[in-house]
Sequence to fold (428 residues):
Amino acid sequence: MIAVIGAGLAGSEAAWYLAEHGEQVELVEQKPARRSPAHASDGLCELVCSNSLKSDDVSGNACGLLKQEMRMLGSLTMQAAAATRVPAGGALAVDRDAFSAYVTQKLRTHPNIHIVCREQTALPEAGIVATGPLTDGALYAAIEARFGGGLHFYDATAPVVTAQSVDMDAAFTADRYGRGTGDYVNCPMNKEEYEAFVRELLAAQKVTLKDFEKREIFEGCMPVEVMASRGKDTLRFGTFKPVGLADGALGRPYAVLQLRRENAQGTLLGLVGCQTNLRFGEQKRVFSLIPALRHAEFVRYGVMHRNTFLDSPRVLCADYSAKDAPMLFFAGQMTGVEGYVESAASGMLAAMNLLRKLHGRESIVPEDTCVMGALARYIAASNAHFQPMNANYGILRGMDVKDKQEKKRRMAERALEEIGRFSAAIQV
Fold:
């Protein structure tokens, strides 16, 4: 029986692939006996926010392209996302509870998957470890002893408000440049309102961080107050940019905070790009300065989480196996891939190659012409300053095409061709 430790996106994807290919799987998950600080339910494959799966644009966005690669390979994550999708313009957003319930039901009813509730305390001799970025306790100690310690960075989640508490007289619904079906609620600000917001954001009390926390905040999940500290217009040219958003009644705004659905009913809305380390009371005070949120009811405040990842270039191969133990694989954010989709993809690739090794065949890793292959090769490439990586075009093999949109389109075509080749090869 093959051990898969952890039933987040990476572990669930790995267990599903192995089971679908005839292997008996012991899926070890500590919930419901114990939860990590980031988890709120007892379900498997739990997401933290609704829009966790990001863009669904196959030819213009690297994460959208990765999702199509995963669909071609039979991904359980993509199957669950399609079944529980909620409107979000060009993004792939899901109802979090329904998504978790879908995956939980699929895994619990699969005849080849045996779910065991326990806290893993040691590394298995063979199998897949996918215990996530909050791995702690005895298992963390075992990883630290085996590989010489982990690295750390801290990311943050954004506040969530009730939809009915948003002042729609001071907001409007629209997707940027009119792309989508008007799923975002836009909270505009004029120059004075924006500058007052930034001023109070910078002055607000924050949770005290340790020195190493301050140094290792991940650029891809930057707290809004840290971003604002880089210049008063940083937000206005980034997360709060008004470009492509205008309303007939309210005119063209100076800056815009967008809200997106957190559940299928649309009764909960998340503050896009507003992950934060402010104290809870300060979050309510500062974000309520935005006119549309003056009476907002906050149902979840932003919090910081410790994320742990391996020094993967030193200890892992591109197939996600340990360099000193070819039958021991790791998957998910602990390998240094950053994001739910990326984590699920790593779980798939780890499972594919563990299965090959179990049957006496060599590992196969896709070329860096596709996103799945580029991520796998990134985490194993020599890097003295290794940091987590999202799906992005920068890690794919280059292409000499000057027009940016045409280049992305052709890179997407090339990526899907590579996945087609890889899909055929992995079965041999």
Q: What stands out?
A: The chain has a mean pLDDT of 89.
